[in-house]
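Forgive a beginner's question, but would it be possible to get any protein sequence you like and the tokens describing how it folds?
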Amino acid sequence: MYLASMDGIELFLLGRALMKLGEEALPEPPGGPGQYAGSTRSVVIVAGDIAAHPDTTIGETAQRTGLPQSQVSTAVARLREAGSVRTAPDPADRRRTLVRPSPTVSDRVAAVRAAGSSKVEDALAKALGTTEAARLPEVTEALELLARHLVREAR
């Protein structure tokens, strides 16, 4: 499929497929997947938004991401518990809480990074199946190219 023939729907569906692969490539949270309310997807979306917009509020994050405020609140609570974000009262309006990335790498982020590309390759290999397994290097290279050109470095 060449980009000239790809439409917005196909691009959107590709993005969803990549999100599912990303979820598969993440190591299980401590205590297993049932320990926390909310999806891993929403936590990663919220973490990315907070990294791009430090000193933001839950309401602002909800507006930018399109997630319900309750999901953003749950995600921020999980991120705070993991040590990935810090919260503080807004000095301009003490009723609001500002959220910012933690200045240090949390244990959870360190664990995800330590799992590294092997978990990604496992998820890709599973998605490709045995009939397309030989294409794993080509697909991996294409994903690295997309990441290099479309994703901001958030480390």
Strands lie at 85-90, 93-101. Residues 87 and 99 are 5 Å apart (CA to CA).
